[in-house]
Amino acid sequence: MYKTKIKAWNLRKYLKEYEAQQIIDGEIPASETAPVPAVAREPEEAVKRAARALKRKRARERAQNQPSPTALESSVSKSFPSQTSDAMLPCTPPRDVVAAPQGFRVNGVAEQFLFNLRAWTHDAFVFGHLDTKLSAQHRSGRQASRLLSSNLTAGTNLYEKGKQQLAWIYWNRAIANFYSPDLFKTWYHETPIHLLFEVGRVAHSGHSQLAVILLQSIKNWAHTFLKEDDSRHALFSVFGELDVAQLRDLYVRAAHCLYNGLDSRIDKHNPLRYEVRLNRALDMLWYDPDSDLTEWLPPIEEVDQACGPNNPYSVYFLLLQAYRLVAQESYPEADQVCSQVPTRLAAMKEGSIDSWRVGLAYRRLGRQQHSKGRYTDARRSFNTALKHVGSGNRLSASILIEICQSQESMAHAFDDQEDAVLWSHMLRQLEQQTEYQDEVDMSQHPRLFAPPAKRSLSARQDTFGQALVDQ
Known about the structure:
- By secondary structure, the protein is mainly α.
- Helix content is 67%, strand content 0%.
- It is built from 20 helices and no strands.
- Helix 17 runs antiparallel to helix 18.
- The termini are far apart.
């Protein structure tokens, strides 16, 4: 009824744009404007109403001409494509991420990982966790990380040498490490980047299924042992979303992200900068022996100037330079560099250098010499590695097995039967100790995955794949 009367009275609730403009301009007397209700037929009130109507109209037009948030996000995504596949992008923002500031957009899981890595680095610096005084938790976490790395490396090396059963033992040990609540609680600056490298080289070695399990295990560990407001929780949770096929490319970007984050927060003469560069150079060489290390490998004079004489990093960098020279087949120069190492070690105070790292450096050098057919040099390097690594902990077992295998093969090449028998005997003892220790571990923790002993390699891989599905 009322609608009918309103039409009959020629009244409307809203003015049209041209009518409002005419009222404001005085072209139509306000008292004669039919659209104005009877209660608002005073001339001044009608003009005010017309001005408000015109203002609302133009505001609506401006809003319609602006792109919607959805369209804006779509255009940004097209301009900066994600580094990960569409299959890896979640439909909704994941909960386990560090919130980005307003106006800063993170596209894809890889970018989220880099952002979380920088946030983790910042927190470690701000809260004083990057100091050189190692707490008990720091040492515990660092030891757990080393054990994880050692087990993964041992499993991969043994698998390549046809020792599949021993490989599975070490891989099971690696997965079992995720029961440790202190595994990644340390703020040691190498923990996240080295973890990314370890999983990346497992995938690069052809064990993608194992890499997937490791990434998911890292995420599960974070959800189990860390609080959600901890930046470590966000960083390690994102591991579970990473694409295995892109780990190598992501590592290169993460290496620069970590170094830039530290470099802008610590003094330019801080030895930490040289430790980071050393480790990144070693990782890059693992992927590609011919990598360009210009930004990671400083001259030894610069290291001495920044870290002082008789500093441990000089030894590590010298052995790295020797490794590089052997890869380039510059053997006289490599021998000259190697000759400086014993002198520097003798000049250092006891306990001022990590003997374990020296042993790993000599093992790495021995590998390169062995690959180039420099067997005499390789045997010397491997024996020096044995001296520094020792045999007093579980970390050394896998390294000793690898060295004994290489030494045995080289002894046969030199027709040195006595040495070949010695290394063969030591190798059998180490393998038996590993198998015995595996039985002890089985009594405490069930094996997470392991193929039957008498099945083919393809069947073993199928079993491994099924274990992944079951998880």
